[in-house]
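Subject: sequence -> structure tokens, single chain

Hey, anyone have a minute? Need the predicted structure for the following. Not urgent.
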Amino acid sequence: MLRMSAQHIRELWDIGNTDLRLLNVLDADRPLTVNEISNRSLVDQAWVSRSLRALEARRLVSREGDPHDSRVTLVTLTAGGRRILDESRPYARRSERALLKGIDEKRLKALLDQLEANTRNSIDMFESSRESPARRSGRTSAAARTP
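Reply:
Had a minute. Here:
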């Protein structure tokens, strides 16, 4: 279903799911930094930067320096980006209604919350197991030897 929807969106608006997600995040009351966009969209910051360059080349977003901090770039949605959002949202709502027909919203939310918690736990377990036992014990014994 997701692949069919993504293909249809690409055919209609020539935009991928991630780029559409970034445009939705930029539908904010104020310009956002790349870091804020990354956090809100749950997309890697490097990927966000690459996507924003492509969206800027298509004039769907614009970037400008922060007047208060020259190290920061602020990103905003352009009229072209707004047009894509306005046209694609009714399609997304229809697709979502069709996909979720007959599904209890409270049960779905509980399931998604549990999946999110399980994912966080899995990531934590993976990250803690990335360090080999030999390195952990070496670090521990080295720390124990430090006066």
